[in-house]
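Q: Hi! First time doing this. I have a protein sequence and I read that you can turn it into a structure. Is that right? Here it is:
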Amino acid sequence: MMHASQSGVRADKPPANPGPEVSGRGAKWSGLLGVRVLLVEDEAFLALDLRDTLEEAGAEVVGPIVSLTDAIRAAQTELFDAAILDIDLQGHDVFPAARIILDRKVPFVFHTAHGQGSNLPPPFSGVTTCSKPIDPIELLQVLAKEMEHRRSVR
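A: Yes, that's right. Below is the predicted 3D structure, encoded as structure tokens:
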């Protein structure tokens, strides 16, 4: 049974496990074991690769979400512990959905082909931004660090 706290973050989760495991693709990282991740990415190949990598790391994936409308809906209604957000969704900025996630106090990272986060509008200037291409395992490790940081500042 899933439970949600006031912020929309699931409260019935064990802490992330950063240990390596072995899978068919070689060494994998299992640091998101049991974590529910909202994946917003409109590039099909990349979205499917990230979904597979998240699942191999033990995460449950919501998505991939490919449109801004669906991203906003998911940000408002889905229960998730963290999110990976592509900034450009079919020519639309993901910021309206990101604002909802920020207000829910759910940790997230931006994943973009449009440079670093130095030119993000407020209130997103402090959000970690990963530039494409990035190794999927590295992206997941960055997300796990964001989750750990969020837990430590509560």
